[in-house]
Amino acid sequence: MSNSKVFVEVVAKHDTYGNVRPLSIRWEDGRVFEVDRLIDIRKAASLKGGGVGIRYTCKIMGKQVHLFDDEGKWFMERK
Question: pLDDT by residue (tens digit) across 23-38?
Fold first, then answer.
């Protein structure tokens, strides 16, 4: 189900230890959302969209969402 995967533009901070922290995402309609809080980072599969990568569990506008980094291509699962 590739239509449940939404590729997004991400602004992220890369530190000297190789850690990546997403700061904001640009949704497909152009709206930009700040990442309020980073809750968890782990290697995981996207059950809805398919693919495996690093899953960032974030709080955006009070909602918990999953943001995936699949070798530099960022995506989220469509609701």
Answer: 999 999 999 999 999 9
3-state secondary structure of 3: helix
Strand order in the sheet with 37-45: 5-7, 73-77, 63-70, 52-60, 37-45
Round to whole Å and give the CA distance between 72 and 31: 21
What end-to-end distance do the CA atoms of the chain give, in Å? 13
SS3 of 36, please? coil
DSSP string, 48-59: TT--EEEEEEEE
pTM surpassing 0.85? yes
Q: Residue ranges per domain, the chain?
A: 2-77
